[in-house]
């Protein structure tokens, strides 16, 4: 059964690249959610005044991978303990967040965070936000990492995250 979820874990180039390696993920689209401006542009979102977060929309086959398993990948591939930033990407648009209106998913997220907090020195600041209008990012953001691996940001920031994921022996990794 195909389902959809929305994750914000910093720059959407990173999160998109991560989830492209996960079995059961049918499609991934970068975009914006959670703000007060209609039809936001990348430039406006980066200014930090729209309220939107950079997110990815993940369509996945729930008979192959569960929502909880996607959360596991999400929380292990970014720092959910830093408020409104991931590395040098700073601002509310880079906040760690999950968007949903599904009560069962909200309960799963809360339990997951509660358990994860027991093993961390810093508390998780990931927000659970009401799913709202998803605005598709401009075309040049789609599949950004795979099309721009030699760009410094991709090789220095995204490349190591992908390498860490691929070396993790995560059971959700796509077999090449």
Question: Gist?
Answer:
This protein has 176 residues and is of the alpha+beta class. It contains 6 helices and 8 strands.
Any overview of this molecule?
It is built from six helices and eight strands. By secondary structure, the protein is α+β, with helices and mostly antiparallel strands. The chain has one domain: Peptide Methionine Sulfoxide Reductase, Chain A. It has a six-stranded mixed beta sheet, with helices on one face. Strands 4-5 form a two-stranded antiparallel ribbon. The radius of gyration is 15 Å and the shape is globular. The two termini are 24 Å apart.
Strands side by side in the biggest sheet: 7-6-1-3-2-8
Helix content: 25-40%
Which architecture would the CATH scheme give at its second level? Answer: 2-Layer Sandwich
CATH homologous superfamily annotation: Peptide methionine sulphoxide reductase MsrA
Task: Provide the CATH top-level class.
Answer: Alpha Beta
How many individual domains?
Answer: 1
CATH topology: Peptide Methionine Sulfoxide Reductase, Chain A
Number of strands: 8
Calculate Rg over CA atoms. 15 Å
Distance between the termini: 24 Å
Tell me, what's the shape? globular
Structural class: alpha+beta
Average predicted local confidence, pLDDT: 94
List the helices and strands and how they pair.
Elements lengths: L1 E8 L2 H8 L5 E9 L8 H6 L5 E9 L5 H10 L8 E2 L2 E2 L5 E4 L3 H15 L9 E3 L5 E2 L7 H4 L4 H16 L9
Parallel strand pairs: 6-7
Antiparallel strand pairs: 1-3, 1-6, 2-3, 2-8, 4-5
Helix pairs in contact: 1-6, 3-4
